[in-house]
Write a structure and sequence with these properties.
By secondary structure, the protein is of the alpha+beta class. The protein contains six helices and five strands; from the N terminus they run H-H-H-H-E-H-E-E-E-E-H. The chain has a five-stranded antiparallel β-sheet.
């Protein structure tokens, strides 16, 4: 989980983050009828909802072509926005967990969360194009790309 700890250290805003109780995470998994990856659960249960506004600045300064993450969604938003975005045109079968500054979302495929796993691929939903593309083979690798900036 070093990449997760390093991401929070490098990019997390200095605002107080409140870790999320494992009971609340289990309740969300039950509502979703899915298993969230252990790596993601580690992040939110250890640190809470990370806000990383400086990622965009660094990406722009370097001219790097990756989509920045700005906010990790609350558990209520994970559930409600996943449904709302589907009604708005996002292909079905995704669990949103974070956003950029433009309304685009990072998500897990529901089918990847059918069983308990340490890590799963991260996908990017482009709100304007209504497309979902794979951006990383795992949550930990996805965070590592920001640590490499």
């Amino acid at each position: 989980m070093n990449s997760i700890d390093l991401f929070v250290k490098n990019w997390g805003s200095k605002n107080v983050m409140v870790p999320i109780a494992s009971d609340d995470i289990a309740e969300l998994e039950e509502k979703l009828n899915a298993f969230l990856p252990d790596s993601y659960k580690y992040l939110i249960s250890s640190y809470g909802l990370v806000h990383s506004p400086n990622v965009l600045t660094k990406i722009c300064d370097l001219g790097v072509n990756i989509s920045e993450v700005q906010d990790f969604l609350s558990l209520d938003d994970v559930f409600s926005l996943s449904k709302l975005y589907e009604m708005g045109g996002m292909p079905k079968g995704h669990i949103l967990f974070a956003s950029d500054c433009k309304g685009n979302m990072f998500c897990f495929k529901l089918s990847d969360c059918a069983s308990a796993q340490t890590d799963v691929a991260v996908w990017f939903y482009n709100y304007g194009l209504c497309t979902v593309t794979k951006v990383s083979d795992s949550f930990s690798e996805w965070l590592e790309q920001f640590n490499d900036l």
